[in-house]
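Try this one yourself first.
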């Protein structure tokens, strides 16, 4: 059976790429052909052969299915700003239909596709739509990465509420302690466990050098 997951987070910079890479590795370790996808990326760098994005590079490196850069990361912008602002500046309208075509192409050559959102759940991608509309169009179960820092309980619960209101399911959530100084981290986690829908798929401590392979071994399995 084909699998697909949409990785969202409580904010930008909360560990979505780290978790996406770890999930790709976990799925690969089950013998699956897995592709990562970053449909919309700002802050891309021109490396001579065109604009590259660090997240897409990392997802591609972790993937083991045949993929094309323009398919895994169809919308790449140089400005390191919100996607709809970067797209407007570049004179491009982000089309969810085109993202869905790319996803379908990846899906046909993979057993599983892991799609990393941009920023959080309600980040606009054009004048009318947000990243949540991408997840809705792709009809994927959602994994919420909770960036463990002060304020994360509110952000996590609002994100989960938004996912459920959109009609999608919360496949699970990850606690990723991005602030090494978070006070009462275990109390914060306990509170989230009482209120978040879905399984706690991984509990990632703050690490000097986060290791996606080690994290992939501790993933609670998804299906
Ligand atoms: N558990 C952790 N311990 C220490 N550093 C972490 C941890 N998780 C993530 N980081 C660091 O935080 C930064 C942001 O992580 P990452 O790029 O995975 O976030 P993101 O949500 O994908 O961001 P973006 O919104 O830009 O896509 C990276 O430098 C990463 O190494
Ligand atoms: Mg990322």
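Now uncover the answer:
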């Amino acid at each position: 059976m084909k699998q697909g997951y949409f990785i969202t987070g409580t904010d930008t910079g909360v560990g979505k790429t780290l978790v996406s890479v770890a999930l790709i590795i976990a799925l690969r370790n089950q013998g699956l052909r897995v592709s990562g996808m970053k449909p919309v990326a700002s802050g891309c760098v021109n490396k001579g052969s065109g604009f590259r994005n660090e997240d897409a590079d990392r997802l591609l490196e972790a993937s083991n299915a045949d993929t094309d850069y323009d398919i895994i990361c169809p919308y790449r912008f140089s400005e390191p700003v919100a996607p709809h602002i970067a797209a407007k500046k570049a004179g491009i309208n982000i089309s969810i239909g085109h993202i869905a075509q790319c996803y379908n192409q990846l899906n046909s050559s993979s057993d599983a596709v892991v799609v990393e959102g941009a920023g959080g759940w309600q980040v606009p991608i054009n004048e009318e739509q947000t990243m949540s509309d991408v997840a809705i169009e792709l009809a994927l179960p959602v994994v919420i990465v909770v960036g463990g820092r002060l304020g994360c309980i509110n952000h996590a619960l609002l994100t989960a509420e938004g996912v459920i209101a959109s009609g999608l399911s919360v496949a699970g959530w990850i606690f990723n302690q991005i602030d090494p100084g978070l006070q009462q981290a275990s109390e914060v986690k306990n509170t989230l466990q009482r209120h978040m829908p879905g399984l706690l798929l991984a509990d990632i401590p703050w690490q000097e050098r986060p290791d996606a392979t080690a994290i992939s071994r501790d993933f609670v399995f998804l299906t």
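Discussion: The beta strands are 3-9, 34-37, 40-41, 45-46, 51-52, 75-76, 112-116, 142-147, 170-176, 199-204. The chain has one domain: 3-217.
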